[in-house]
Amino acid sequence: xxxxxxxxxxxxxxxxxxxxxxxxxxxxxxxxxxxxxxxxxxxxxxxxxxxxxxxxxxxxxxxxxxxxxxxxxxxxxxxxxxxxxxxxxxxxxxxxxxxxxxxxxxxxxxxxxxxxxxxxxxxxxxxxxxxxxxxxxxxxxxxxxxxxxxxxxxxxxxxxxxxxxxxxxxxxxxxxxxxxxxxxxxxxxxxxxxxxxxxxxxxxxxxxxxxxxxxxxxxxxxxxxxxxxxxxxxxxxxxxxxxxxxxxxxxxxxxxxxxxxxxxxxxxxxxxxxxxxxxxxxxxxxxxxxxxxxxxxxxxxxxxxxxxxxxxxxxxxxxxxxxxxxxxxxxxxxxxxxxxxxxxxxxxxxxxxxxxxxxxxxxxxxxxxxxxxxxxxxxxxxxxxxxxxx
Length: 390
Known about the structure:
The chain is of the alpha+beta class. It has helices at 50-68, 89-92, 133-158, 188-196, 231-245, 250-253, 257-271, 320-326, 346-357, and strands at residues 2-4, 18-26, 32-39, 79-84, 164-170, 176-183, 198-199, 206-207, 222-226, 286-294, 301-309, 336-338, 368-374. Mean pLDDT is 80; it is low at 1-11, 283-287, 307-317 and 384-390.
């Protein structure tokens, strides 16, 4: 016989908890006990869930720190802050900008107006009809591969295998640029040879400019070598990289609806799987939900799987290509990534935390079988006053 026990909860203030039902079956008697739990959503973006984002921030800090600091001396290693930017207005079109002169005065935009720092026009095209939206989303789609090619070429020029951690930041105009921490010295000349092409001074060979899908980096690329004698400076750049990793991407970062919609449409046209969101096998508006039913005579509670048409509701079961078009405006890959030879991994950090959390938990007898199942939505009992979903 199955019965529903009092919901058990963890700690934390997750904004979008995931509802789970835990069923424990006694193999000796056949009795089943069901309890409802709320699990963290695990969001990286701070604007979506501050609690889960703070947890991700701590994990990211530990991962980057293990590669950036020497475990024996506790001092930072010599590293270079590399910045790679997107092409300029000559490839896509002019956008509204707010420049400050050396004397602190706001300069006039190309639209002949002055913009304040909160103006929704900042980053949007001056002429939306001629702006290259298709090119902007295509560059975003090739940015991850372009960065990988850049690091490969830079590794050949320097004659060593690079240890890198990089983070992607979305600009107001919707294009991405990359900040990377590279262990060791990377000179500005070496970076420019890779980005623009030139002759390798070490081997004398001619190096072609790094490109992917016909796209190259913009003109504002910089390599700043940081001394290993200043721990405070290393922590500053570490925090800076982690802060970028918590920012929203494309759709969430854009404050101008019209510009965001045009970027979304361009990304969906050029990068989708070939089907509309209604025809995509992962984007169907039909969804399976659990319908709860209680027997008035015995009080037994059963759950029946039913198919429901989600008309008017947001579709979350889209394929990866649709999600890239909607959320990242074509960008592929993780916002924060590292080379395999850089310190520890996210999995290692999370496993250590989980081991610490399970250290004092009693082990279940072998005759108890535990199964978990995701519910269609968080039950109201889990969100009652005084209860905090984990």
